[in-house]
Amino acid sequence: MSRSNLGARIELISPSARAVRFPAVSDILAITNRIMILIDGAKYNKEALPIMKCYLMAVKEAIDVQHDGIDEEYTLELVKALEEWERFLEQYTKPKMKTLLVKLQNNLQIDKKIRGLFDKLDKALNDARLEVELEDNAKLREYIKIPREKTHDTGGCCMMDIDDNLPTTIRPDSTSIKDDMKKAFEDDFVTTACFHGLPLPPEKLNNLKVDPTWVHSIPDAQYNGVGPEKVVYCGGSHAAKIKIAHEGEDISRYWVRAYISSQLNTDLFMRNYGILLENGVYYMITEWPEVGTLSKYLADHTDIPWGQRIGIATRLARALAICHSKYILHHDIRSHNVTVGKNNIVKLGNYHRTRHTKDITTSVAEESDGVRWLCPEKVVDGSRPYSMAADVYSFGMLMWEISSHKIPFTDKTVGEVYTLLKDSAKFKDKDAPRPPIIPGTPKKYENIMKRCWRQDPGTRPNMAYVLKKLERLDEAYRKNSHEPDTMYWTGTTSMPDSEPQHEPITIYSARKLHTEKRHAEAFKQFKSLADDENPNAEANFYVGRYLIDSRIGYENDPNVGISYLEIADQLGFHDALQYRAQEKMAAATELRKKFIEAGKLDDAALVMERMKTECLPMFREGAERGNLRCMKDLADYGAKLGDKQSYVDGLKMLDNIVKTTKDPKQKAKAQDFLVKLQQHKDTFMD
């Protein structure tokens, strides 16, 4: 008799229990309610606490429904177990615990304590003849069904499957990684490589250890000790055996690389089988590209029909969109890192630099040939964190490679490309240095490509948008083309489905979550609506806000946020333009302030001029659409920047609203803005 919609089934299985009223039910339910409030208020370890709450809700529901017939003597044990949960959580949620948590993050004290709490409550439920079955909840099973005597030291707080969309504040101690990774193959559990800021699950890393008996050398293969060796992997598949390090060296980054590959386990990505330790040497075992790289393939096949080129670009866009949907940045998108296998199937590969969006990386190597695909903002400012917009720029360059069969800027040296991009800050899109458009390139393909490599990262589209456009173009070519479909295969692997929801996702449900400040859930719904085949304009606006506004307290990625705002504006949600202009103005104001403090007055003046030429036109455009805030900002910032025309025009627009509108709310708001703008009345005395 199922009693819970949370995947946990609790049944009363003792027919012999005395049918007496459960006297402490109100006390127990009150304790569970207090515990849930504490869990909701906790700021640390967002992995374990939702599991505790999920289990507690199942327990509460069972007690609430089935309290008749349970022995009175067992209520005391339940109360004691729950009171221990409450005491622990009261301490756990205090601000002063932050320092303690940081100290404990590399040992099992917290994890053992939580498991102990589950043990005691589990025992009390068993004594009361309540059986908990966790058939549909893997995370609960992990805590409650794991034999306690087999628990290993995991080196982290709560080791379990990582939820890509769940923000966490606990970070592993990086100093322990190098020491512990040396023991990776000696221990049953490999535990210290980190992803999304948390130690990787030990059971997943164990699955990435390659058994030496599964790999066999090919006697006739020519191998000179340089580059990957072709071998036979378990099952007869050809694989590449790549030397990465000697035993005792730090290989944590390779564990992350293998783990990322395991998270991208579709036919769109080159497969990574794991890490092999053989004769004191670590090897990475990956899928063998039967044909080679896309770079070589394009050089060898210069007559690929356009329909097939579009198909290749669409397949790779789908792969990168999946990466970004999991908040994974590739960092090195180019044809050299795309493999071509059997039947000429292209796959995205080489996760050497791939990492999570929260992992900040800034280095740029001037001598690296990768600068040909690198976004100009990273060349100009090497300290700037890498972003999804940077991946999108590189994808635009990859699209050009597919169109031209050449590498970008092939007529220039690496140093010349670096200098060219470094000097590009003063350029607009139409003048920015980009490879020439190849004659015969379809106009829609060209437009997508140009949007990807826009100079301002904030105006580049996200990959979900790029994929949608390419899929439509690919579909059109398939319908209207008679080209033989033998040189490429786009595949049918789609974007990962969103998690099943108990209620349908609508803009109203997302708004409600946002109003309730349940930001993680709200963001997930807004993003689902924004990335839909028919994207919602308001959802794009809110995704942009979440990624930009630090006050919301969500994960920030302003560059990606700006692109969502741009799409919201294009879809008709015109508040997005005002918000985007405000953010641009705020960033410029902060930069100008720093220049003034540093005595760089010429630079400060240049920033102010750009504020006039770039931000004020955005406010004017919004004002002309009837946006009252843009009218107010046009006048406000016009006065602050000494632009009399903008100031006067903004005032006139607001005054016209007051005189002509029949909407009392609009009229009152316009009047309020006019009153506030009186502070600038002496700015232009003439």
Automatic annotation (TrEMBL):
Gene3D superfamilies: Tetratricopeptide repeat domain, Transferase(Phosphotransferase) domain 1. This is 10892_t:CDS:1. InterPro entries: Kinase-like_dom_sf, Prot_kinase_dom, Ser-Thr/Tyr_kinase_cat_dom, Ser_Thr_protein_kinase, TPR-like_helical_dom_sf. Residues 218-473 form the Protein kinase domain. GO terms for molecular function: ATP binding; protein kinase activity. It comes from the Eukaryota.
